[in-house]
Every structure is written in C-alpha cells, then in structure tokens.
Design brief:
Elements: H1 2-14, H2 21-32, H3 38-48, H4 50-53, H5 64-67, H6 71-90, H7 97-113, H8 118-135, H9 140-159
Helix pairs in contact: 2-9, 3-6, 3-8, 7-9, 8-9
C-alpha cells in the first residue's frame, strides 16, 4: 500500500496541475471531432515536418502522397491517434493520474530509444495543434485546455528523454 501512496505522490508531482473536469471535457469534445481522421492527422504532421517522417523506417525517403493511402500508413496513424485517445479518455479524473503518467512515461522512453529529440516532440505538437485549429471549433477556451493537456503530457514524456 505504501508503494501506491509513493507512486501517487510522484504522479501528482510530475503532473503538478492536472486537467480540471471542464478542461478534460473540452479536450475530449474537440478530439472526438477529429479522432477518426487518423491518416489525415499523421499526413499533416509529416507534411509540416518531413524530419519526423524520416524517423519512421517504413516511410523514410518516400513521397508522402505515395504512402498516405497505404495500409501501413493507416495502421501507424491509428496507433498514434489511439494513444492520444486513450490518454484523453483517462484525463480529468484524479484516480487515473497514475495510468496517464505510466502511458506518457512509456511514450517518452520508447521515443528516446528511437532517437527522437525534444525538438521533434515540439514539432509534432505544433503540427497537431495546427491540425486541430483547422478542423475543430477552436477558441481561447479550447486553446487553453489543449495547451494545458499538452504541457502536462510533454513535461512527463520529455523527462524520459533526459
């Protein structure tokens, strides 16, 4: 039991300012508008930042138009979007903080092993936010909720890159 108490304190420390229920609802609602556009989301990231595409061995050096409609691209896009969907679905509930922390920490560890830099995480964030701004109802409240969510996510993931 002591272990879980210590783990909970570590999670709260790492995610010092978890999303409120209202912020989580805003993020979930906006994500629900695009989460089935997996291929378009990943294509937007690759189009904006070809250096990210180059980190994927199965897509490196290939023309985006030639891979966008392939099963491999759709499968990988679905994996990425599903990760976000899982984290978002757990957000806004204090009882889920340790699960969110574990998922996001593993994301950082896995990407460190692949040589992904903090700058590339930042590029992905920029491309994702640009996609969201263009495809969901976007206002100051949505921007603030997403920034809070991504700040928390990146604080944990980037700690694993150190």
């Amino acid at each position: 039991m002591k272990f879980f108490a210590v783990l909970a304190l570590c999670v709260v420390g790492a995610i010092a300012s978890p999303l409120s229920a209202d912020e989580a609802a805003i993020v979930k609602s906006s994500w629900d508008q695009v989460k089935h556009n997996e291929v378009d989301i990943l294509a937007a990231v690759f189009a904006a930042y070809p250096d990210i595409q180059a980190k994927f061995p199965q897509f490196a050096g290939k023309d985006l138009a030639s891979i966008k409609d392939t099963a491999a691209f759709a499968t990988h896009a679905t994996r990425i979007v599903s990760f976000f969907t899982e984290v978002i679905s757990l957000s806004g509930n204090q009882a889920n903080l340790s699960a969110v922390y574990a998922l996001v920490s593993k994301l950082g560890v896995d990407h460190k092993a692949r040589g992904i830099s903090a700058a590339q995480f930042g590029e992905f964030r920029t491309a994702l936010v640009s996609y969201l701004q263009a495809h969901v109802s976007w206002g100051d409240n949505v921007a603030a909720a997403w920034n809070h969510a991504l700040d928390n996510t990146y604080a944990v993931a980037l700690k694993s890159l150190e």
